[in-house]
Structure formats: structure tokens, C-alpha cells
């Protein structure tokens, strides 16, 4: 699974609508409204690198109100949730 973190600048008066449109796209697992330079952060998860082109420039950038994106590809995932699950294997609650 390939994970991309997409930083998105939008028309600020339409952030909720734009976020909902992006969240509805296939390949987008979640969208966060954030403070700072960017307005939204989208998590894109696809099976192959080639699929990123279909989702990010092919769909996300075409949502009305998206002004600019910056994409970061994740190398490895470090998650407290994953660590807790791994250590809990075989233990009963």
C-alpha cells in the first residue's frame, strides 16, 4: 500500500464543501482541515505508485476550489496504534 500525504490550499470560503468532495474520491481515506499554510490535508492510499497520478492530479486537483497541492510520499508508517496491537497479540482483554 502506497500512502501519500497531500497538502491542499483551497478557496477558504468553501473549505467544508471542498473537503467533503475530496473525501468522497476513491483512494482518499481521510481529509483533515488544518491550521497553517495549507487548508486541508488528505491521506491518499493506493496499491501502486502509478495510481497516485489517477488520484492526485487526476481527481484531487480537479475538485473545484482546489488552488494548489503539495504531495509527500510516505516511506514507512510508525503508529502507536499499530505498536499496541502488535504487543497485544495473544493477550486476552
UniProtKB/TrEMBL annotation:
UniProt organism field: Wenjunlia tyrosinilytica
Protein name, as recorded: Transcriptional regulator
GO MF annotations, alphabetized: sequence-specific DNA binding
Residue span, Transcription regulator AsnC/Lrp ligand binding domain: 6-77
GO biological process: response to amino acid
InterPro entries, alphabetized: Dimeric_a/b-barrel (IPR011008), Tscrpt_reg_AsnC/Lrp_C (IPR019887)
SUPFAM superfamilies: Dimeric alpha+beta barrel
GO cellular component: cytosol
Amino acid at each position: 500500500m502506497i500512502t501519500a500525504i497531500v497538502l491542499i490550499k483551497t478557496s477558504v470560503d468553501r473549505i467544508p464543501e471542498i473537503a467533503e468532495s475530496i473525501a468522497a474520491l476513491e483512494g482518499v481515506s481521510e481529509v483533515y482541515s488544518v491550521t497553517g499554510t495549507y487548508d486541508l490535508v488528505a491521506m491518499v492510499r493506493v496499491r501502486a505508485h502509478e495510481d497516485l497520478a489517477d488520484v492526485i492530479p487526476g481527481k484531487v486537483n480537479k475538485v473545484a476550489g482546489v488552488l494548489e497541492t503539495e504531495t509527500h510520499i510516505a516511506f514507512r508508517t510508525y503508529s502507536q496504534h499499530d505498536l499496541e496491537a502488535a504487543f497485544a497479540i495473544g493477550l486476552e482483554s
